[in-house]
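INFO worker-7 received task bundle
INFO bundle size: 2
INFO processing item 0
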Amino acid sequence: MQTDLSCRLQEVKERGTYRSLRHGRGPVDFFSNDYLGYTQNLALQHYAKSLMEGYPHYFMGSTGSRLISGNYPITEEVEACIAAHHEVQSAMLFPTGYMANLTLFSTLPQRGDTVILDEYVHRSVLDGCRMGAATRWKFRHNDLNHLADLLARAKGRIWIGVESLYSMDGDLAPLVDMTALAQRYGACLLVDEAHAIGVFGLGLVKELGLSDQIFASVVTYGKAFGQHGAVLLGSKTLKNCVVNFGSPFIYSTAMPIASGLLIQHAYATFHSDSTAQEALADRVRYFEQHALGESASGSPIKPIYLSKDACRAAVFNELEDQGISCSYIKSPTVPIGKERIRICLHAFNTHAEIDSLVGILKKYQ
């Protein structure tokens, strides 16, 4: 068995797609998902410290799954607060966004149903679908005509899975038109808002006034909100369905109480102080004004496409040498031929840091 595993690893090394864990980062961050800089927010840190000093047991394990010993009144109060923020009937907390998507897409679609996914959705969505027995199709990225063609051919109940802000390409789903298309064919739209919350208000679903037209959405807190965990938003019936049929939820230990309270405080910070949101919007505009070929999408995720692996590697290495951390995204995370340098902008980045970044990128474009 060890030999078989070694052979598998050797194959990916020969393809140039071997992954390894890295230590450390440069002083200039253009690669984390900490868009608003909330992991550095002193008010949030002070709240966490006071919570730890006053209620240290909140940071310990929850002792079991939500259906056994891991459900607490405080957790349900936090969920009710989150639901109110997003103007939906119910909210259900999960330890990770991956688990939330795994639960959603393995629980709702049934045998005889059809799930139609944007080709660039998160891997967790695909893995969730693979746990179920529904027919699974993909449509070309953000291509409404292709989606309409598949909707016209779909059988059973129809589910559409998309991201609102795509994690690798940094572009937005046409949610308004997509919602209208779903309604025309009687399909249920499921939206992954992992990268949109905090960047576009509390997510594009709410910003576009679609909360009552989307069947369900997933929001994660490990990115702009600087916390840990995720939430599934939807109807009370959806929540009850997950409690009864959602295997990843049923058989997993619940998140600690402190995680929910820190998430709740992040919402309060977001609503009471817009400094970080304004700073992020400014940095995005500044980058779009100075980088070559940048369109004004408003997204902090900026993929940089270069023609050859050697060129991408040279850019990545020079950035690293200058203390600038970014991501070199390779296949199979993205399709072959779509490899890229992925830039993430943050509220705490300075114009001078962006100038240094853009100066290096322009040398290779």
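INFO item 0 finished
INFO processing item 1
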Amino acid sequence: MSAMVVSSPLHARSAVELKQLLDDGSLTSVELVEALHARADETEPRVGAFAHQFRKAALADAAKADAARRAGGELGPLHGLPVTIKENVDTEGVPSTIGMRARRGAVAAADAVVVQLLREAGAIVLGKTNVPQTLLSPMETTNALYGTTHNPWKHGHGPGGSSGGEGAAIAAGSSLWGVGTDIGGSIRVPASFCGVCGLKPTWQRWSNLGSNSVLAGQEFVLSQIGPMARTVDDLILLMRALDGGRHAALDPLAPPVPFAEPGSVDPTTLRVGFYEDDGFFTPAASVRRAVREAAELFEAAGCEVVRFEPPNVEELLYLYFRGLTADGSATLFEALEGEPFIPPLKTLGRIARMPQQARKGVAKAMGLMG
């Protein structure tokens, strides 16, 4: 291993940097996987980001990747790079429980399309990361099967959800990058809480086949698989490697849209809208400042930048939650029958079980209290 690699911890480097080290022979995949295992040994007792670690399989796959590199020939764009997968995304031979005891036997018969494409690109699956029970918790990641995931930056604080295990693993350095899912912030919130990067692509830009939900059949608000990583450049590398055409070959709902390289877009053709406050959830001053700074960067790049106020946000949220619970939460309660609710779901459960008139009364009282 080169002196440059020794001088800086591998777990603190970006995937783009590590790919370069693998490609130029300064690093082997076995060394990289071992470094991430060592980091997990150090961080997992206080973070708890993983639901499953595939240590033997990952080391075996890393050894095969190194042998293939030595043999020469064509290699995938992610050859020898480790990746982690959110627990509700199918990985062959491993249960996708969604943090629910009743699904302990829900062993995946095959990889999700995104996992299949990652493996075809040469990636090595390190393990599956933790989720909150049912995935319906944007702030905390906890369940009765795998326990509680803590924020790597401050023990006792939440990493966000529902891709909280993924965000925590990347921030802790026990993963380089990985796959999350997002319906109402489940990639974006953990990325924010944990100080990493995340992207919710347009629906079906990445195939969702093999992504499990407790709200089967709910199609009003759709979940989307997407990447999480340490840097934006890492996100670009993942999006490029899993080009849309490859998803379309395995999923008829995925459009055969090729990845657009960031440098290929003429910014003068773009019209960018922004707002600092939606009038419902007022963000912190630091968030408003970051939005303004981003708008200024777009403007400096030549984009047409337009400030606007989102209309009817309260009605939007009303419709959003009505859509999620259009069956009166019957599907959710059926799935949770006999299971204790995690704390974030207890209040939701009590409200959902109230008669409609009682819910209206509670809503009115809460409105009067501000």
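INFO item 1 finished
INFO post-check item 1: Residues 1-7 have pLDDT under 50 and may be disordered.
INFO post-check item 1: The chain has three domains: 3-259, 265-308, 316-370.
INFO worker-7 idle
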